[in-house]
Amino acid sequence: MVLADLGRKITSALRSLGNATIINKEVLDGLLKEVCTALLEADVNIKLVKQLRENVRQVIDFEEMAAGLNKRRMIQMAVFKELVKLVDPGVKAWQPTKGRPNVIMFVGLQGSGKTTTCTKMAYYYLRKGWKCCLVCADTFRAGAFDQLKQNATKARIPFYGSYTESDPVVIASEGVDKFINEGFEIIIVDTSGRHKQEKSLFEEMLSISNAIQPNLVIFVMDASIGQACEGQARAFKSKVDVGAVVVTKLDGHAKGGGALSAVAATQSPIIFIGTGEHVDDFEQFKVKPFVSKLLGMGDIEGLIDKVNELKLDDNEELIEKLKHGEFTLRDMYEQFTNIMKMGPFNQILNMIPGFGAELAKGASEAESMARLKRLMTIMDSMSDAELDSREGAKLFTKQSTRIVRVARGSGVTVREVQELLTQYTKFAAVVKKMGGIKGLFKGGDMSKNVNPSQMAKLNQQMAKMMDPRVLQQMGGMSGLQNMMKQLQGAAAQAHK
């Protein structure tokens, strides 16, 4: 993903601040040059890049700055704020209301990924417990209804369309009325796209909009066309009241930066971004977490949302076991299952501060998932007694024939089984340590609840488990401690 490339370039530019002995105007100019080059390469409009550079220079005045101020921190924060401004029009996005029909109409040019995005959005709300459905009012493109039907059936979402009716206004009205009467909460209407911004497209769009009176009109924008998005979005907004934007195809094009920054100029907030072809390659777009994730600073808020979706609080049995210092192979298997449920694996990694870019870099989504599944396959070949044994890996070292049997049963080498057991031993040691720390599972401030010396030991243990390069990327032990505090703080906020 090219935006990850942009993130890496800006992060390495910011990291160069740490290597400078004296922070002065030359260092700032060098940093801004690197940041601006990275933004221009990502196809961000040159006027916006120039504005960003001037704004940072205005904020950072070395002559006026008090002696005790942390100049590095101030420069980092100034760059962060300006990047946020680039993609934030400062308009609050519309939110659907539970328990009543919310009609959402999708508009955009042909080929922007509108039909797929309709299904992704319906699936997103379906997972959050909303009653969702789809209406296909695209009668212009051959096969549009078939595509929507196929997508909706796969995602188990009710849909409406017609092979005989040629008037999209009639289909849209009938479909919306049908689903309102059946008590659906999120009714998504897909409309026709054209190759160019033709008059007939806008007329049809207006007629549908007047007939169904949508609560929200979403403009679907293809990131691969870059800065050209701005003219498109303005043309649509001048005809219908575009209330929000979804940016698609952000998983592989150099022009992603241009598309994101073009949106701010239209005064319509981006509410979701499409990052792949699968139904769950779809993320809610929140500006600050997005920029912080781009810079490798993680997205704690998003991670907490994902964890809360799983309702892990219901798993009191595991928390009780942890408090007594118990953690079996079966518990590890269950944690792997939870990770699989959380959605795209690399997306989750990217939410963890300091981990994402490094760990996800070497492997594709499929490779990361395949590794996890392989470990679970090995555990599938273990007996219940082995999975539930409190001895864990010791049971296997006492009787090496068990390792041979598991390797044979799962079709892997003996060495791979041994590696799994080594990982489990390290993982279990940290988890048991966490379970033994009083106050770790309470809400509130971890620093008040937890004995500092115990916390320091836990951090050291975690540091030993990690790849040294990842630890360095996080800013060493102090970075790791900050991450633990951040996670605990965010978890406490989530419980409030």
Automatic annotation (TrEMBL):
InterPro entries: AAA+_ATPase (IPR003593), P-loop_NTPase (IPR027417), Signal_recog_part_SRP54_M_sf (IPR036891), Signal_recog_particl_SRP54_hlx (IPR013822), Signal_recog_particle_SRP54_M (IPR004125), SRP54 (IPR022941), SRP54_euk (IPR006325), SRP54_GTPase_dom (IPR000897). PANTHER family: SIGNAL RECOGNITION PARTICLE 54K PROTEIN SRP54, SIGNAL RECOGNITION PARTICLE SUBUNIT SRP54. It comes from Leptotrombidium deliense. Belongs to the GTP-binding SRP family. SRP54 subfamily. One of its GO terms (biological process) is SRP-dependent cotranslational protein targeting to membrane, translocation. Residues 269-282 form the SRP54-type proteins GTP-binding domain. SUPFAM superfamilies: P-loop containing nucleoside triphosphate hydrolases, Signal peptide-binding domain. Component of the signal recognition particle (SRP) complex, a ribonucleoprotein complex that mediates the cotranslational targeting of secretory and membrane proteins to the endoplasmic reticulum (ER). As part of the SRP complex, associates with the SRP receptor (SR) component SRPRA to target secretory proteins to the endoplasmic reticulum membrane. Binds to the signal sequence of presecretory proteins when they emerge from the ribosomes. Displays basal GTPase activity, and stimulates reciprocal GTPase activation of the SR subunit SRPRA. Keywords: Cytoplasm, Endoplasmic reticulum, GTP-binding, Hydrolase, Nucleotide-binding, Nucleus, Ribonucleoprotein, RNA-binding, Signal recognition particle. The M domain binds the 7SL RNA in presence of SRP19 and binds the signal sequence of presecretory proteins. The NG domain, also named G domain, is a special guanosine triphosphatase (GTPase) domain, which binds GTP and forms a guanosine 5'-triphosphate (GTP)-dependent complex with a homologous NG domain in the SRP receptor subunit SRPRA. The two NG domains undergo cooperative rearrangements upon their assembly, which culminate in the reciprocal activation of the GTPase activity of one another. SRP receptor compaction upon binding with cargo-loaded SRP and GTPase rearrangement drive SRP-mediated cotranslational protein translocation into the ER. This is Signal recognition particle 54 kDa protein.
